[in-house]
């Protein structure tokens, strides 16, 4: 049986993962209409991954006799000044998700909930990978500069990353 505190904290995390999925879908849509098809493909794939994260929490909580209750989520931002601004925000958002996962782990340690702590370790590893992936993209954007040629290469790179992620999941 899961404690009320952890039930609430996981429901808050479900909201954050759903919000992440919507933010990345909105970003993908912006990329799609602003000439970045590769970035759009990458972000649509990432949006699906966030929904998968959300579902993992939903099933876990219900399997532990908790109750996953979906909450209202905010409307994501629709406009960006540049692809650089957009990916800087992805990185900040992933850093926020990592800090929330760490807080959840802290709460499990306080509550002596080893089962949930064990479940959360998958997310701890996932966040290391996600932050590192997005940091690489942000570094590449800096390296290539904000020029048309640079943008073209970034978009090709993101398209390749999306294909690699899709192939890894098959
Ligand atoms: Fe589910 Fe990208 O954090």
Order of helices and strands: HHHHH
- SS field, number of helical segments: 5
* CATH top level class name: Mainly Alpha
Q: Roughly how many Å is the radius of gyration?
A: 17 Å
- Gross CATH architecture: Up-down Bundle
The N- and C-terminal alpha carbons lie at a distance of 35 Å
Structure, explained:
The chain has 170 residues and is mostly helical. It has a single domain, classed as Ferritin, core subunit, four-helix bundle (Ferritin), CATH 1.20.1260. Helices cover 82% and strands 0% of the residues. It is built from five helices and no strands. It has helices at 4-33, 37-63, 83-111, 114-144, 148-169. The chain is elongated, with a radius of gyration of 17 Å. The protein starts with a helix and ends with a helix. The relative contact order is 0.16. The chain binds MU-OXO-diiron.
Key terms:
170 residues; mainly alpha; Ferritin; 82% helix; binds MU-OXO-diiron
Secondary structure: elements and pairs:
Elements: H1 4-33, H2 37-63, H3 83-111, H4 114-144, H5 148-169
Bound molecules: MU-OXO-diiron.
Summary of the model, kept short:
The chain has one domain: Ferritin. Helix content is 82%, strand content 0%. It contains 5 helices and no strands.
């Amino acid at each position: 049986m899961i404690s009320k505190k952890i039930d609430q904290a996981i429901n808050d995390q479900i909201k954050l993962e759903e919000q992440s999925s919507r933010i990345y879908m909105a970003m993908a849509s912006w990329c799609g209409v602003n000439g970045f098809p590769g970035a759009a493909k990458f972000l649509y794939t990432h949006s699906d991954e966030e929904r998968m994260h959300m579902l993992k929490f939903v099933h876990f909580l219900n399997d532990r006799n908790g109750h996953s209750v979906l909450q209202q989520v905010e409307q994501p931002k629709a406009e960006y000044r540049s692809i650089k601004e957009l990916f800087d925000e992805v990185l900040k958002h992933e850093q926020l998700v990592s800090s929330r996962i760490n807080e959840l782990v802290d709460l499990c340690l306080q509550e002596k909930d080893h089962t949930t702590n064990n479940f959360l370790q998958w997310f701890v590893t996932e966040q290391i990978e996600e932050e590192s992936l997005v940091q690489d993209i942000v570094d590449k954007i800096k390296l290539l500069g904000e020029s048309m040629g640079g943008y073209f290469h970034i978009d090709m790179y993101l398209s390749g990353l999306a294909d690699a992620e899709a192939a890894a999941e098959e």
